[in-house]
Amino acid sequence: MMITMENVCKSYRIAKRNAGFHEAVKALFHREYEEIHALRDVSFTISDGEMVGYIGPNGAGKSSTIKILSGILTPDSGSCLIDGRVPWKNRIEHVRRIGVVFGQRSQLWWDVPVIDSYELLKDIYTIPDQVYRSNLDELTELLNLGELLRTPARQLSLGQRMRCESAASLLHSPRILFLDEPTIGLDAVSKLAVRDFIRKQNEKHGTTVILTTHDMQDIEALTKRIILIGKGQILMDGTLEDIKRGGQDIDREVAELYRSYEI
Amino acid sequence: MKKYISFFRLRFSMGLQYRTAAAAGVVTQFFWGVMEILVYRAFYEADAAAFPMRFEAVVTYIWLQQAFLAVFGAWIMESEIFDAIRDGNIAYELCRPVSIYQMWFSRTVANRTSKAVLRCVPILAVAALLPAPYGLTLPESGLHFGLFLLTLVLGLLVIVAFTLLVYIVTFYTISPDGVRIFFTSAVEFFAGAVIPLPFFPEKLRYVMELLPFAAMQNVPLRIYSGSMTEAEMLRAIYLQAFWLAVLTGLGWGLCRRAERRVTVQGG
User: Fold this and answer.
1) Per the CB < 8 Å rule, is A106 touching B94?
2) Distance (Å) from the C-alpha of residue A14 to the closest C-alpha of chain B?
3) Contact flag B13-A116 (C-beta cutoff 8 Å)
């Protein structure tokens, strides 16, 4: 077993107040906090080479899970083991073996050509020359990066940049790939390219992939297993067929599913 | 180690891109230097004996200060680092097998040196050509020059360690503004950026010279301009090393703590 999560809980304290100046002044003296339970008792196991879709409505706890799995967030309780390591305790050892794409953020250096960011990653992960060369060639071809590599990141379109971001996360041949909404805001062509590429990574290198998305076509195209999370709890761990139940339009089916769980 | 050198290299080469900013900086610093020197001249014409430094030493101090403004300017911080903490882009940095502290350290050193390299040469060249007593003079001896270089590097490391503390405090406060303003004004005043420290009253100056702020530009600029005795130089270098150790130790510890309990902002 590669990834196990057991009874993981995480809550955030969030300052809340009503609208308006009066309320803002009041909050100077007395601040109200609300405890948000982002994850309650989350458990699952994922084996080597699996591709798992992690779905749920906004605010369900998907990103918190990914952050815990990638070692950048410490849960309040529960345990998590990935390859025998606790992500947040052996952060540096752990992250050497994983790749992460946060669809809403950028890891490329804004003002320099993409290739410079890649060269930096090469040194950060101490990727051997040969491995770097062959990975870069493979990724360039798969994602059609070509000329993009010589362009500063700030001058790329969103779709172009996301392709470069995906490649950046795979230069060090990670065993596990976490994708947090990797196709957000992409046009049809770029979406297909990114999906195709994720599938090939899994087939060719046996990379374990955990994918969160709101785009059900991503799920259809990529994953067999689906974990549904809502209000911080795992509600379903099954297959695409469990959701579809013969329906035609997957988005409707998923909306129906969310409603049935009242999330 | 190599990865931190790569951070340095990338940040350095990035800094070299901003040529227009450097040209504008050179012009501004040059005129600023001229203005300051004219003000001091007015004071010295009234009574040169009333001041603790020779006029030539003050002039040299000012030219070096302008030339190396990017090394010691307290306000030079990277908005990218603040933004990363505020909007959660720090997530990516935490996903790398690197120490955040060391990475930011090499980045910040690179940012300051790349800015300074572009700016210092033209300012120093012009200042050296100006007629006495308005020009940059040579250091008293080879030893003074060597010590100037050593303390310049130490001073750079001290201010970088200080800047990093501001970044790290932002992990806790989220908004950098308060700490930043406080830090910038404290450094400007106590480091001898506004007025060289010898101009302060005896007792105040004694205390100021012990503070970490005095371990920044104060030491190299005064050694070069020959306004420190041998004993003073030695003590200043020890203090620089001491503050460097204290500040990096403190920053490193705080950073490790922050990494563990940090909340990455945004979804």
Assistant:
1) no
2) 12
3) yes
- Nearest beta carbon to residue B94 from set A12, A59, A72: A72
Give me the mean pLDDT over the A226-242 stretch. Answer: 89
Helical H segments across B54-99, by residue range: 55-67, 69-72, 79-87, 90-94
Q: pTM (2 decimals)?
A: 0.88
Q: Mean pLDDT, chain A, as a whole number?
A: 88
Q: Please give the DSSP secondary-structure letter assigned to residue B215.
A: G
Closest chain B C-alpha to A247 CA, distance in angstroms: 31
Q: Which residue has the higher pLDDT, B237 or A74?
A: B237
Whole-number Å distance between alpha carbons of B242 and B250:
12
Q: How many residues does chain B have?
A: 267
Put simply, the chain B residues between 202 and 261 with a CB less than 8 A from any chain A CB are 259-261
Burial class of residue B165 (count of CB atoms within 10 Å of its CB; 0-12, 13-18, 19+): middle
Q: What are phi and psi of B50, to 5 degrees?
A: -80, -5
Q: Does position B15 have pLDDT exceeding 60, yes or no?
A: yes
- Nearest-angstrom CA–CA distance, A244 and A254: 8
Tokens 């000329």 locate to A147
The pLDDT tens digits for B66-90 are: 999 999 998 999 888 998 888 888 8
Residues of chain A positioned with their CB less than 8 A from the CB of B89: 105-106
Cα distances (angstroms) measured from residue B241 to each of A116, A178, B72, B88, B224: 34, 43, 17, 34, 19
Instruction: Give Cα A145 to chain centroid, integer Å.
Output: 22
| pLDDT tops 80 at residue A248 | no
Whether A118 and chain B come into contact, CB under 8 Å, resolves to no
